[in-house]
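Human:
Focus on the backbone:
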Amino acid sequence: MRVLALLALLLGTFTVSAPRPAGAEVVRVAEFLADCPFSHRLPDDPIIFPGLPGASHMHSFFGSRVTNAYTQLSDLQNGATNCNPAVDRSSYWVPTLYQDGAPVEPAIVTFYYLGEGVRDDIIARIQALPLGLRIVAGNAKATAPDDSTISRWSCLHAGHVGASKDFVNCPSGTMLESYLDFPQCWNGRDLDSADHKSHMAYPVAGACPSTHPVPVPKLRQVIRYPVSGDPSHFRLASGAGFTMHGDFFNAWPADEMERRVRDCIRPIIKCGADGRPS
């Protein structure tokens, strides 16, 4: 009986800690992610207008539930979040979308952290995003779409429509979606800058410029709104579709961010929200 009990224990232990099946292949994409649905809406912006409630156009906030005009890093670290994974205490926000004057909040919001955009040898030395980093991507004051417009609009499950710098007409039954890539080259010193952009840069020819030599994961925000049809009915709180922009206030615990960069980004492995190979 004692032998049987020991055998059962060993088998049970093996079942619980079974390794990845032999031959199972990881997906060679440098990626981890956070799913962070809509949290709240306020005319605040703690990066652009810190300490000035109501000074901004309306923003839709994701992730941290506590973000307002007065938010500091410690508030995010100690506050509630709706992100999956829950270790991501970061705050993300964008101008609110309106349809015929009524606010529309996204149905799906995903933030991807990627290695793409630079050469593989540079991916291999990507560094973790520093705790407390603040970034604004896009141009809220744009007056027309131009070469500097980095945001794109498209339709979920309707690729034939094509991407555009402004709102697009999505077929009934689809959703309007927005893509925006943040810069992935850091100057290695500053967590913010006067214009909230200059401490970061986009890569050039697959490498980071000498002024911003530290490669970090590229943040890509993908937001899907439950609307479709005539784009003349849409506007952002900041204006036309080409004024889409995103704000990011990094509050990932340093060890969690570093683990994901080490295990997912540098070895070019696609990971899920838990930071494990998916």
Residues 30-265 form one domain. The longest strand covers residues 218-225. The CA atoms of residues 20 and 277 lie 10 Å apart.
